[in-house]
Amino acid sequence: MNDAISRTEKYQKTRRAFVKTCLATATMVAANPTRLALAEPVRRYSRALLKDEKGNPLSSKFMVENEAFVFHYPYVTTPCFLLNLGYALEPGQVLETSADGMYTWQGGAGPAKSIVAFSAICAHKLSYPTRTLSFLNYRPEKIRFVGSDELEEERSQLIYCCSERSAYDPARGAEVIGGPANQPLAAVELEYDMEKDQYYALGTRGGELYDLFFEKFGFRLALDHKIDDVKARVEGQTTVYPHSTYSKHSVSC
Ligand code: FES
């Protein structure tokens, strides 16, 4: 457990997150009842078992609190973050994409409802973690950033992009809380098998940017992954890496 985040702080975060979710949902539904009715359900892809680098199914104890992990889903070249925020994250957060309207977030998975996953492709200009470098990182420590209201803030447990400083809150479905990104990171739907203590990726919710991603980085993705078809789908299983070893350098700003 990370000592930097105390039990009291976790309780307060859980409670605050729950109340904020209820209030934000009520406000958004009141303002946009027809758009919510059109909200997309989860987009289903292959049901993929999350495995560690040795090929064993990933169990909850592998997911150390406040450490970021990377896996690829729903395509073999599209990276995602897997995070254990350390406290329960309720479902129902209503979010909005730039083009497709509103959707609801699944909340946390796992025994403590604290495990979340998001596309690790920045919604601004598609910065993503590579094997050599990552400008998009999970930041468990307190960092200063300029919020969406143009005021400087200090927060911990953010996904932060050092390309142009977009900030996302993983406890609220990766909604944008600062910087130029115009929509949340797409959420990856997780299924938790309680009996076996195993995790599956099932699909996505929110604004996918995969077509733009392939268009912009297809050539490089083919080289980096040593494959011809960068749009090949993940089938059956996907490997999870600690981000600290997946990317040689993580840029902090
Ligand atoms: S690419 Fe992430 S903020 Fe610009």
Query: What fold name stands as the CATH topology?
Result: Rieske Iron-sulfur Protein
- How far do the termini sit from each other? 25 Å
Residues in helices, as a percent range: 10-25%
> What hetero molecules are bound to the protein chains?
FE2/S2 (inorganic) cluster
Q: What is the highest CATH level, the class?
A: Mainly Beta
The biggest sheet amounts to: 4 strands, mixed
The H/E string reads: HHEEEEEEEEEEEEEEEHEEHE
Provide the β-strand percentage band: 25-35%
Q: Over all CA atoms, what is the radius of gyration?
A: 17 Å
User: How confident overall, as mean pLDDT?
Assistant: 89
CATH architecture: 3-layer Sandwich
Q: In one word, what is the shape?
A: globular
Instruction: List the total number of helices.
Output: 4
Oligomeric state of shown chains: single chain
Structural class designation: alpha+beta
Main sheet: which strands, in order across? 14-15-1-16
Question: In words, what does this structure look like?
Answer:
The protein is of the alpha+beta class. It has a single domain (7-250), classed as Rieske Iron-sulfur Protein (3-layer Sandwich), CATH 2.102.10. Helices cover 20% and strands 31% of the residues. It contains four helices and 18 strands. The protein has helices at residues 7-31, 33-37, 210-225, 243-246; strands at residues 43-51, 68-72, 79-84, 94-96, 102-104, 115-119, 133-134, 136-139, 143-146, 152-155, 158-161, 166-169, 175-178, 187-193, 198-205, 237-239, 241-242, 249-250. The chain has a four-stranded mixed beta sheet with strand order 14-15-1-16, with no helix packed on it. Strand 11 (158-161) and strand 12 (166-169) form a beta hairpin. The longest helix is centred in the first third of the chain and has 25 residues, at 7-31. 38% of the residues are buried. The model is unreliable at 33-39 (pLDDT under 50). FE2/S2 (inorganic) cluster (FES) is lined by residues 122, 124-125, 127, 161, 163-166, 179-181.
